[in-house]
Each structure stands twice: as C-alpha cells, then as structure tokens.
Design brief:
transcription regulation, sigma factor, RNA_pol_sigma70_r2, 180 residues, RNA_pol_sigma-70_dom, globular, DNA-binding, mainly alpha
Length: 180
C-alpha cells in the first residue's frame, strides 16, 4: 500500500486513512487530546503523508502512525497550555468507543463505570512514560512489538516499564477496582 502511495496513487493513502482513523482517534483521545482529537488525527495523517519518504520499507504502518499521533497530541496539549482533566479524557474515551453495551444490566453498567473511572484516575497518577506504555499496550490493544515500535523503545524497555506501571496501578486502584 505504501509503495502505491509513493507511486502517486492518492486513493491508496485514502485507504490507509480509512483503515487507521479509528485507532488513531482512540489513541489521541486516550493520550489527552480531548475535543481536539479529530484535529490531532488529521494533522498526524498530513505529517505521516509528508514523511512517507522516511518510512522504512517492511515496517508496520500502524505503530509508526500512532507514534506520530502521540507526538502531535503532546504538541497540541502543550501549545494549548492546558492539562486535560480526567472528566475530559473520560468523555473523549466514551465518545470514541462505546464501553458498556446498551443491553447491560444497570447494576453491572454502574460497576463498570465506577471501575473505569478508578482506572483512569490511577492512570492520571502515573508518569508519562508509564501512562503511554499502558495506553498503547492495553487501551489501544497493541502487541509488545508494536508498542515498542510506536514508542521507539527496545522491547525490553517496554516490558520493564509496563511491569512497573502495572505494579503501580495495582497499588493505586481501590480493592476490587482493577479491571477484569
């Protein structure tokens, strides 16, 4: 697909955009873009297109794109000189993907909402690198190799930081608040 884009076939890039917009929006929202998530993703796709000449042949596009989304999210948050609140992140995540099916039992739905809020509050307390590795690995469901590629870290670093982040999350979560 990348070869087709490089060969001047714009419809090939449109296919890449369609295939990766959902995960890019989830990444931007999870990393704190809030209401600017769509703008961040659009800018990330523009930057990715401009940087295709530097894209390594044979590399996976998704981790490369998500690293651009993460950088663009950081730039947007810094430029706006604001910290997105926990409530803003929760609203962005809920808007990006339904968390609880409509058919769920109200008691179960309430418990899941409380557990999710506790998890997001605990994530807020992690360092940026620990929050990033947990977000990529679990919230964005990337495997270890993709997480390492997206963050530009060796796999061993991903493993160790993820291990430390999960231990810290366990200490921060109320008893029974850990996600199943």
């Amino acid at each position: 697909m990348i070869a087709r884009v490089r060969a001047g076939q714009p419809e090939a890039y449109a296919e890449l955009v369609r295939a990766h917009t959902g995960i890019a929006l989830r990444a931007a929202a999870a990393l704190g873009a809030g209401p600017d998530a769509e703008d961040v993703v659009q800018q990330a796709f523009v930057k990715a297109y401009c940087a295709l000449g530097r894209f390594r042949d044979g590399a996976a596009f998704r981790p490369w794109l998500l690293s651009i989304v993460a950088n663009e999210t950081r730039n947007t948050v810094r430029a706006a000189a604001r910290r997105t609140t926990l409530a803003g992140r929760e609203a962005a995540l809920v808007g990006a993907e339904p968390v609880i099916p409509e058919s769920a039992d109200p008691a179960v739905a309430t418990l899941e909402t409380e557990r999710r809020a506790a998890l997001l509050a605990a994530l807020e307390q992690l360092s940026e690198e620990h929050r990033l590795v947990v977000t990529y690995r679990y919230l964005l469901e990337m495997d270890e190799r993709e997480t390492a590629e997206a963050l530009g870290w060796p796999r061993g670093t991903v493993k160790s930081r993820l291990n430390r982040a999960l231990r810290r999350l366990r200490r921060l979560l109320p008893e029974g608040g850990a996600p199943a």
